[in-house]
Amino acid sequence: MRHRRGAPGAWRCDTPGDAPCERCLLPHLETVRQRVRAGEPVVFVLPGFPCKSPNPAKVLGVLPDRAEQLALEFLDGLCARIREIHPPGARIVLCSDGRVFSELIDVPDAHITAYQAELGRMLTALPGGALSLFSADDLAEMRGEPHERVRAWLDDHYGESAEELRAQVRADAEVLRLYRALTRFLFEDRLTPERTESRSALQREARRRAYGVIGRSRAWGTLVSAHFPEAVRLSIHPQDCGSPKFGIRLSARGEDGWLTPWHAVAVERDGVFALSRRSEAEAEGARLVHRDGRPSHFVATRTVPPARESADRPLAPAARPT
Ligand SMILES: [Zn+2]
After folding, report:
1. How far does residue 84's CA lie from ligand 1's centre (Å)?
2. Contact 9/247 with Cβ under 8 angstroms?
């Protein structure tokens, strides 16, 4: 609950003080209890980690970098802490969903494949070994099929009609928030110098594609729930009180708003990492660090003028995430 990602106001719930909200626990508690009683690991599924944003103003490239590494370490560490109180521990299955909407977000399938492969390598190197990867490429019934066929199959089996989606966006505050955030991302990702369309044309196009992405995301979520019936469904998006999905942050700090590791770069300031757009990190003069021959993250120097600071007071120790 400490790392829960609630919708604005959701923390108020119906509960006094810091006590966990009964209504928020209810959809998940029995699933967790069953696993604990059976002496088995608690399983979480988390759709996300699709691919890097195609916008070079936001990210460093196609492959997961330090931004993803930090999120993976945080989630792996969360499972380690669950293991301290429930020895069989917990597992998180990352349900990488880039394949299911690659054509809607202008990311070639080859980039999705490369991202997933590198993410898989990063997972296996984690100390707790609690994370694994699941993607549309793992669907037994779709093995060896072209990627377009997989997306068509998903639409056929789990898709909703355009009317149903529009009704969802109108009726459900959480879906509406997602729609607005996606529209913004999709608009920004095409707002590159080589684009010749007007802003309003790009905006219209972003709204159309946002519906498409929401449709595929929902279809993917339904498939994931059917595939992992005994898992607690996590979400990277903020959730309302009592939601069947449990919103989870991807860092202990949890101050990154709508930024995700795949829409951003990691920036280290005084030993503390945060997410930022690549363009913002560069604008503040942060230094790019390479790992294994690839761009990894930025290191920013302090923004307070050093002469004045050293004269007035000693450097305060950096607040570290707990
Ligand atoms: Zn609640």
Report:
1. 26
2. no
* Of the options 3.40.50, 1.10.10, 1.10.8, 2.60.40, the CATH number for the domain spanning 10-254: 3.40.50
* Residue 288: closest CA among 266, 255, 318, 262: 266
pLDDT band at 322 (very low <50, low <70, confident <90, very high): very low
Residues with CB under 5 A from ligand 1 (ion): 13, 21, 23-24, 241
Q: At what angle do helices 173-190 and 162-171 cross, to 10 degrees?
A: 110
Whole-number Å distance between alpha carbons of 218 and 22: 26
Ligand 1 centroid from CA 204, angstroms: 35
The domain spans of the chain are 10-254
**Which residues neighbour 65 within 8 Å (Cβ) at sequence distance 6 or greater?**
59, 265, 266, 291, 294, 295, 296, 297
**pLDDT digit string (tens) for 251-263?**
987 665 678 999 9
How far is ligand 1, taken at its centre, from the CA of residue 218, in Å?
A: 23
* 3-state class percentages of the chain: helix first, strand second, coil last, to nearest 5: 50, 15, 35
Q: For 6-53, what is each residue's pLDDT tens digit?
A: 776 655 676 666 677 888 889 999 999 999 999 999 999 999 999 999
Cα maximum dimension of the chain: 68
Q: In what order do the strands lie in the sheet containing 294-300?
A: 272-276, 265-269, 294-300, 287-291
